[in-house]
Amino acid sequence: MKEESNYTKSGYIDITKNRTFREWGISLVLLISLTSYIAIFWARLAKLLPPPYNQWTFIYEPLIGPWWINNFFLDQPEYIRLEILWYILCFVSSLVIPIIFLVLIRRKLTDFGLGMLNKLGIRLTGIAIMVSIPFGLWIQIASPYPHRLTTMYVLSLFNKIPEHFLILGILVALMLPHRRLPYPAFLAQIEGSTGRKILRWLGIAQPVTSDSDNPILAWFGLNWTSLFAISVSGLVFFMIHLGRANPVEVALSLPGGILVSYITFRTHSIWHAIPAHWTLNLVPMAILHFYKFN
Question: Is residue 81, in this structure, part of any structural domain at all?
């Protein structure tokens, strides 16, 4: 595990500095471009559009769908084969293609969320996992679908990796001035009252620094630029949940998306938020499946 402790070396000041209008303009163009790319193959917001643009398959199905259905998983129903195709296309579109692009332009993958684990991230992951279980139960109880812990459901959890990489890692990084995530956050010395020690152990209750433009945001280790980055990431995370039948899941995806974006920003890695997302989906489903609380 790697832990950065030097404030200047961490890159935090450099990455979250206030930007010029030109830099804001570039961020806006990048935001529109990446959001459009995501909406093409992932966002359920597309279902609100008129036919034939209201299906995620309107691009892939004419090219790949019939060939896939006629050649793979022939012992499975057609809807299962299409679901498997959906998972594969999302994995390729949101993980493989972006990684190839970043490698070609010689950018470090660690600057976009594929960094190592660190102490702050592990602490936040533990808290996020505990918080995710009751909210996951709320989502599952409100679900209109039966609580079945199927193989396809478990396999779908792997789709959280490309989801986090594209929406939380790449998108947050591109909204920052140098188009990369900061190194793992500098943590102020753990001192003071018991409450303050606990908060600083979690990476908050941070002092105001030279790059802070708001004392409240500084308390969370943020400024206006970084708040913008995690907010738009959370909005896109919310966007891909629009159209789902469970209103509780849709409603919670906005604060949940902002939270996991914050964890990714502060820890320089997508790997800390993913276990909490898995727990949110898997543990409550398993409880309701095995104990038949329907």
Answer: yes
Band of residue 158 on the pLDDT scale cut at 50, 70, 90:
confident
User: Cβ distance 53 to 39 under 8 Å?
Assistant: no
CB within 8 Å of 272: residues ≥ 6 apart = 117, 121, 122, 124, 125, 128, 263, 264
> Within a domain: residue 227?
yes
Sign of CA pseudo-dihedral 208, 213, 219, 221: negative
Residue 16's pLDDT band (cuts 50, 70, 90): very low
- Dist CA 230 CA 207 (whole Å): 20
Half-sphere exposure of 92 toward its Cβ, with a 13 Å CA cutoff? 8
Residue type, 112: F
Strand partners, 269: 114
CB of 134 closer than 8 Å to CB of 142: no
Residue-wise pLDDT for 229-260, tens only, equals: 999 999 999 988 877 778 898 899 999 999 99
Q: How many domains does the chain have?
A: 1
Task: Name the maximum alpha-carbon separation found in the chain.
Answer: 66
Which residue is listed with tokens 């979250």? Answer: 16
Q: Which two tokens stand for residue 178?
A: 């140098």
Q: 117-126, 127-136, 163-172, 278-287: which has the minimum mean pLDDT?
A: 278-287
195 lies in a domain? no
Name the average pLDDT for the chain. Answer: 81
The DSSP secondary-structure symbol of 95 reads I
Torsion over CA: 4, 6, 11, 12 (sign): positive
Q: Return the structure tokens found at 123.
A: 């602490």
Determine the structural domain holding residue 22 and report its residue range: 15-185+221-291
Q: Is the confidence at residue 64, as pLDDT, over 70? A: no
9 three-state secondary structure: coil
211 pLDDT higher than 50: yes
- The answer as to whether 36 is a domain residue is yes
Name the 3-class secondary structure at 228: helix
